[in-house]
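Encode chain A's predicted structure.
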Amino acid sequence: MTEREAVSRTVQNASPPAALLAMVSLRRTNCSPHGGREQATRGLSLRLNFAWILTGNLVYAMCQWGTIVALAKLGSSFMVGQFSLGLAVSTPVLMLTNLQLRAVQATDARRLYSFNEYLRLRSALTLAGLVVIAGIACFGHYEKQTTMVILIIALAKGVETLSDIHYGLFQLNDRLDQTGKSMILRGILLVAALSTGLYLTRSVLWGCATLVLVWLVVLLFFDVGHGRAFVAGHTRSSRHPEHWRPWELIRLALPLGIATTLAALNLNMPRYFIHSHLGERQLGIYSALAYTTVAMILVSDSLGHCAIPRLSRLYNCERLTEFRSLLLRLLAAGGLLGLTGLVVVQFIGAQLVTRIYGSEYAAEFRTFLVLVLAAAVYCVACMLTTAITSARCFRIQVPLYTLVVGSNALACAHWVPTAGLTGGAAAMLVAATVHLVLGAAVVGCLLRMRAKQPERLQTQPWGRSWETSL
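Encoded structure for chain A:
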């Protein structure tokens, strides 16, 4: 007899005080940090999780940069172009078909869906995305070798999406050390495999083929191997049948997938206008300066990823005081990170840009300063988005990011033709500010509504509660 059945029998047969005590006991069990079940492995602290995911992200970002260096040194600018085109074609498609299932899984505090359901849906959608990419590559009038490079890179990214769904499993169980280790391993093998393939064959195609093989090895022997322990200890809610429910998951996750695609569009919006009005040279200067802010964004995003499972459990169990406390600490950390970045840039930013890129880029220091200010605002705004996602409010993020992208596009149209690169940076600042204001409004509304939510709604299935309808 399960604990839930035992409590149910107690409630039916006991006196009202005893029944109430039994229900409270069951509620506390469901609201425990790990859903009232024995973990196959114990979760790590927020500090350790943050350290691991930050290290993994930084190492992986450095290795991605290393692949560009390897292509430039061992290959040619044409090979760099082929590789970049493969990423440009495959990434947006797979970003949309991913549906951000990793975040949906990480916030599944009640274990309403099993890991196998997430894995099956991710596999099916990835296969569909690869078919779409193949169509784009075949009918895009590319050279034969370029078409093959696009397809191989898409296959590598497809393997990466399967690793990503395992990262959601690790995140749900507060074990981001596994995610960090996997990202470090994949990053190192990314540089090693691509460089070796290029050195031996002088072909970017075979270099990318070796990348697919080594990433597949990491998926099968590290991600799947370590994921089995968490799957073995996973107990899904008994309120739902065991059959696969892909359309329920798609309906739940589709808004988050659209919001993620809009967020990527927002990041690249100034680039479109700068390329159109100012040309490739100015676009290159802007892109190089914008890439310098990646360190701040990586730190803030890493901290947000660590906090999502814990925030989700606190919100699910109506521990709103603790939820607000953790959110305030996240906002303070984001603000401190942004302020630190601004201080560093104000004092040594010009020298930093000159040493890294050269005097040509340092001439646009004002643009760089505005970009850092926009990144500082984003560091705070992304913590609010983390809170919204942890409450499983996915649909509201579509209009939120639509307004952010719209404000960015209007600002770019108004300022880029007249102010140049600084105008594009200012548009990013406007978008970040709109993101911050709208995120604060949504979080405030969520907390007020949750505090007033009738107790009877807590007996409804999680997937039908008001949060998922927003």
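The CA atoms of residues 404 and 434 lie 6 Å apart.
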